[in-house]
User: What shape does this take?
Amino acid sequence: MDHWNIYLSGEIHTDWRDQIERDCKSANLPVSFYAPVTNHEASDDCGVTILGAEPNKFWHDRKGAQMNAIRTRSLLENSDIVIVRFGDKYKQWNAAFDAGLASAMGKPLIIMHGPDNAHALKEVDAAALAVTETVEQIVATLRYVIRGELDMN
Assistant: This one.
């Protein structure tokens, strides 16, 4: 494959996406990255901002979730690899859903989380082809998968 499309799902409170993009660019890997909308307020309020206000919070959230699903499903379908990052601060139910959806689509999954989440994410990890703890491990995995290069430094 000449070019790889990679979807970056998961927590939005750290710069892990920027780190992966920077390190892959430094490694000169032929990749493009896609992600959900990471502006929390925009993601929550997109439905009511575009389609009209909802007095009931359930329908407010539902409109936003459905609008975000258009983006997520389309980008997941067009991705060669899906990377899902679970952070420590919040429970990322949407990231778990993305991992399940990607798995159902037959997309190769790389999961990233710390050891404290290993038990809670055991089913998600079981669906993954690689479970990592660091950005460096993700980039090394991509380097190996894309180029067959095993960096032993």
Observations:
- The longest helix spans residues 57-77.
